[in-house]
Design goal:
This protein is α/β, with parallel strands linked by helices and 251 residues long. 39% of the residues lie in helices and 24% in strands. The protein has ten helices and 15 strands. The strands form four sheets. It has a seven-stranded parallel β-sheet, with helices on both faces. Strand 2 (50-52) and strand 3 (55-57) form a beta hairpin. The longest helix is centred in the first third of the chain and has 15 residues, at 3-17.
Length: 251
């Protein structure tokens, strides 16, 4: 088998299974594990997969810009947001992360809900500005233009001095073994600070972000209390998340 054919076979297996093991690929393709490890290393360098100890995982595609993503799957994001809103109680302190799904939470908060929302997202703050009963605390820092959120040491430090009742976390990628991951190291630092600042942590996760990994690890799934995703996600996909103790909500 030619190298290109072997690597296509590796990627096909990865797409079907969501993960591959070097030892199994070695037996399947009848080459040495050293050859498979070299293939995985080079496919990782090309951005085709994420190499991990013993094998590889699917890598999340580089996300489109915030504005472009607002037009993608709006119905699913609204459904996830409405399910998440059912967790909010009057007079709570809430952290709303950046992202197009947390933005839908901001845009669909009931008008009779009195809460304090802390956010580092410009779109979230602007959406809440018209809400009659929400107090908004906007966290500053350097603007990460791709996500329209503040990042940097100032942002992280501000969240470290906050104790919120609940936070709603925008998700880049979620994987039961790797955990929460994203595409920017500074954004990952902010998300870690947000998770540490809230009693309940709700991951807002469209179906296409499950079982994927991005380059920068935020933390393990033990940092989450809830996972809100689409009703279309097969039950077997959610089994490892439920096994980790997460409360699963399907919208």
């Amino acid at each position: 088998m030619l190298t290109a054919e072997r690597r296509r076979s590796i990627l096909q297996a990865l797409q079907q299974e969501g993960k591959v093991y070097a030892s199994e690929l070695s037996r399947l393709l009848q080459v040495s594990e050293d050859t498979i490890r070299r293939d995985l290393r080079e496919l990782d360098a090309a951005g085709a997969l994420l190499r991990v100890h013993g094998g590889a995982l699917l890598r999340s595609p580089t996300p489109a810009s915030f504005i472009e993503r607002q037009r993608q799957e709006p119905g699913a994001k609204i459904a996830i947001a409405l399910a998440a809103i059912s967790l909010i109680r009057q007079d709570q302190i809430i952290i709303l992360d950046g992202g197009t799904t947390p933005l839908q939470v901001a845009e669909h908060l009931p008008t009779n809900l009195h809460v304090t929302v802390i956010t580092h997202s410009l779109p979230v703050a602007l959406a809440l500005a018209k809400h009659p009963m929400v107090e908004i605390i906007l966290i500053g820092g350097r603007l990460y233009k791709h996500e329209l959120v503040a990042v940097g040491s100032e942002t992280v430090e501000a969240f470290r001095h906050i104790r919120a009742d609940i936070c709603f976390l925008g998700i880049g990628s979620l994987h039961p073994a790797i955990g929460i991951s994203t595409f920017d190291p500074e954004e990952a630092s902010v998300k870690r600070a947000i998770i540490a600042s809230a009693t309940e942590v709700v991951a807002l996760t469209p179906a296409e972000k499950l079982n994927l990994t991005a380059p920068y690890i935020v933390g393990p799934l033990s940092g989450l209390t809830h996972l809100v995703t689409e009703r279309s996600v097969p039950k077997e996909v959610l089994i490892p998340y439920r096994a980790l103790g997460l409360t699963i909500m399907s919208a």
